[in-house]
Amino acid sequence: MARTAAVGATALASIALVLTGCATGDAPRRKAINSYLAERADLENVRRIMVLPFTPESSVTADCEKIRDAFLAELMKLRRFEVVPLPSTASENGMLNDSLRHGRLSTEAMVRLCDRYSLDGVLVGSITAWRPYKPPHLGMRTQLISIHSGATVWAVDAIYDANDRTTIADLREYDDSSQYDDGTLHGWELTLLAPNRFMTYVAHRFVGTWVE
Description:
Rossmann fold, seven-stranded mixed sheet
């Protein structure tokens, strides 16, 4: 009878482990995303940049300013660029955003902006998907354009969707390697409940593709 009880307990424990694995997804693992980084020689003279206001794609409703702020905060941690703020009165801002909505960046507006503020490049971003409530998702498309060559020297296009097991595995890896223990019982799951934390997580992954 004791042996039967022990076998039963072992079976229950195994089932519990399986259920736990199903609930939390795959083991912590970084998610591969689409990104491009130019050769070192092309990156060398891109130091002083401006990050334009992010824009939502059609049918997407998002707080672009907050998402851009999260991206900027992570970008500053890189300590690679001198980020010049964009004055709200800059007329080139509207011209650039309008040209982006039509699928082509206005070279004239970008050159004028770079000349006025002595920039090496401009970083533009668009929000391709956003859902702040659980399960959250955030998609972005960002690119850094060099004024010296006129070419894109850094580009990232990805979506992080908490419905996707690879995103959950990536989030757990991010929590294990990047976050401090805040003493809560939620752990990595807290990021799924707090939109600002999810923005920071995605921004961290985007900026993390810059590896010279």
